[in-house]
Amino acid sequence: MAWWVAFLICKPILMLVRRRDWRGVERIPARGPVVLAANHVSELDPLLVAEMVLAQGRTPAFLAKSSLFEEGIVGRWFRAAGHVEVDRSHGADGFGAALAALRSGALLVVYPEGTITKDPDGRLMELKTGAVRLALESGAPLIPVAQRGAEEILPAYSHRPKLFKRPTVTIDIGPPLDLTDLRQLGPDPEAVIAGTRRLADALTRMLDQVAERRGASHRPTGSRQRRTSW
């Protein structure tokens, strides 16, 4: 209910400040545990990803830093919405709580970079292993999500939104990563590292495709196409 109330409030605003291009949404399972692993380009990302997930009839849970759970009304909303607390100051990574959420059937959104990218061109940074560990230990499918465009509304590490450009926000849902061989190895560190490499490769490839498509949409008809990389 907390998510749907927020959605009803935010949806009209989102329609005013962005266009949308969602692809592959049929790959999100209608029920059961799933880990969505997305790149991170703006503080606006969670709202835009949540909008997409809610439109598929699922309710997302996010890994969120513990300070957000301590801020009065905001903290109460985070708890009511079922997000998973990550206590960085005490060295706890929230893994146990996230694993419990998945085992109860949650759709968990994870940003494996751990923070908004610091690359000035929005390239993917080195990934942490948490998303793959969660998928391997829970048995949940691990689905890569490539997104771009939110930074044109709210640039990375900025608190000054650009509300009048109305850019297209692109969200591509990839096929679940095949982790069958790695799951057979059990909780092996090498399996986690190998899985994280697969996730990084998949996200990089998807982001290249997103960049190519977005670049093509801004080129005049008949212009030469150039490959854009992150």
Write a concise keyword list for the protein shown above:
230 residues, alpha/beta, Glycerol-3-phosphate (1)-acyltransferase, seven-stranded mixed beta sheet, globular, disordered C terminus
Tell me briefly what this model is:
The protein has seven helices and seven strands. By secondary structure, the chain is of the alpha/beta class.
What is the topological layout?
Blueprint: H1 2-17, E1 19-23, E2 34-38, H2 45-55, E3 60-65, H3 72-80, E4 84-86, H4 95-103, E5 107-110, H5 130-138, E6 142-148, E7 168-173, H6 180-183, H7 189-217
Parallel strand pairs: 1-7, 2-5, 2-6, 3-4, 3-5
Antiparallel strand pairs: 6-7
Account of the 3D structure:
This is 1-acyl-sn-glycerol-3-phosphate acyltransferase. It holds the Pfam family Acyltransferase. One of its GO terms (molecular function) is 1-acylglycerol-3-phosphate O-acyltransferase activity. InterPro entries: Plipid/glycerol_acylTrfase. The chain has 230 residues and is of the alpha/beta class. The chain has one domain: Glycerol-3-phosphate (1)-acyltransferase (3-Layer(aba) Sandwich). 38% of the residues lie in helices and 16% in strands. The protein is built from 7 helices and 7 strands. A 7-stranded mixed sheet has the order 1-7-6-2-5-3-4, sandwiched between helices. Helix 4 runs parallel beside helix 5 and helix 5 packs across helix 7.
**Main beta-sheet annotation:** 7 strands, mixed
Assign an overall shape. globular
Helix % is 25-40%
Q: What fraction of the residues are assigned to beta strands by DSSP?
A: 15-25%
Spatial order of the strands in the main sheet?
A: 1-7-6-2-5-3-4
Q: In terms of structural class, how would the helical and strand content be classed?
A: alpha/beta
Helix and strand element order:
HEEHEHEHEHEEHH
